[in-house]
């Protein structure tokens, strides 16, 4: 139903954002693809929310996008990436056709998992003030379950990669800032360590890594990346790695173009690989969908 997911890869040849609306027999399908260099999930859903509001006749948007780059005083825009660096980057890796599965986690199952994780963490005297989130508990559970079924060697490293947002860490940056303010973060454990510990202990490692990402750390990451850009190649991602994108905080089901609220949200074919998990909030409050 959506033919353009690969059409935003090149700045020179293709559009930075494309959309398609398909009328079905019993509904409407809206597909959008965008170049991730232009915007992150926060900006994407801000755009989508605004578009739906305008479609309903709203004239004055409550949250206008902020396009100014004055919040990054130490950066000379546009950021220059050397031609030689780009020429050495082409990734001709053809992603195999994987089977996709959609998992729905009920509100009660998430509450139970979070309670179990916090009960395990609370037994340590140094962890009394740590609060494991629902998301940390769920991702830890998925990490253990998937790696257990891969039958890996006990002493192999396994990784969980997730996205760290910068808006809530860079205090001068408004939530409405339109752009890409994210970075990848990784937790690494031995397979044996991952599988022998409880879900709370694994979630605690995630919690520590997330807590260590301060505004100062984010600014340092930006400066380092500009000095030496590092571009991700899907071909280099290990089968022992899980990665999560998207967020349950995004307003997905509040979008109404005049046809009623959506009944489902799914991710497209782009950026898929063995171990990729795309996270959505469920239509029912407190539920989560993994695609």
UniProtKB/TrEMBL annotation:
Keyword Oxidoreductase: no
Keywords from the named record: Transferase
InterPro entries: CAT-like_dom_sf (IPR023213), Sec_Metabolite_Acyltrans (IPR051283)
UniProt GO molecular function: transferase activity
Record flagged with keyword Transferase: yes
Identification of the protein by name: HXXXD-type acyl-transferase family protein
Pfam families in the record: Transferase (PF02458)
Gene3D superfamilies: Chloramphenicol acetyltransferase-like domain
Domain of life from the UniProt record: Eukaryota
Organism: Gossypium barbadense (Sea Island cotton)
């Amino acid at each position: 139903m959506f033919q353009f997911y690969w059409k935003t890869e090149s700045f020179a040849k293709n559009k930075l954002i494309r959309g398609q609306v398909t009328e079905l027999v019993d509904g409407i399908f809206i597909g959008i693809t965008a170049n991730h260099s232009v915007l992150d999930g926060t900006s994407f859903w801000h755009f989508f929310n605004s578009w739906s509001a305008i479609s309903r006749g709203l004239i004055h948007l409550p949250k206008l996008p902020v396009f100014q780059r004055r919040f990054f005083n130490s950066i000379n825009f546009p950021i220059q990436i050397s031609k030689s660096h780009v020429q050495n980057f082409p990734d001709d890796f053809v992603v195999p056709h994987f089977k996709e599965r959609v998992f729905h986690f009920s509100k009660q199952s998430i509450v139970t998992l979070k309670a179990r994780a916090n009960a395990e963490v609370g037994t340590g005297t140094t962890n009394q003030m740590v609060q494991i989130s629902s998301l940390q508990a769920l991702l830890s559970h998925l990490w253990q379950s998937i790696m257990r079924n891969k039958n890996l060697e006990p002493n192999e490293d396994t990784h969980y990669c997730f996205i760290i947002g910068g808006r809530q860490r860079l205090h001068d940056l408004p939530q409405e800032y339109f752009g890409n303010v994210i970075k990848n973060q990784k937790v690494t454990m031995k397979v044996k360590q991952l599988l022998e510990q409880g879900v709370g202990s694994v979630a605690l490692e995630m919690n520590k890594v997330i807590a260590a990402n301060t505004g100062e750390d984010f600014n340092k990451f930006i400066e380092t990346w500009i000095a030496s850009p590092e571009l991700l190649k899907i071909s280099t991602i290990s089968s022992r790695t899980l990665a999560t994108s998207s967020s349950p905080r995004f307003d997905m089901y509040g979008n109404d173009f005049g046809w009623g609220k959506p009944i489902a949200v799914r991710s497209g074919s782009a950026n898929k690989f063995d171990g990729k998990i795309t996270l959505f909030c469920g239509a029912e409050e407190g539920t989560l969908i993994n695609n």
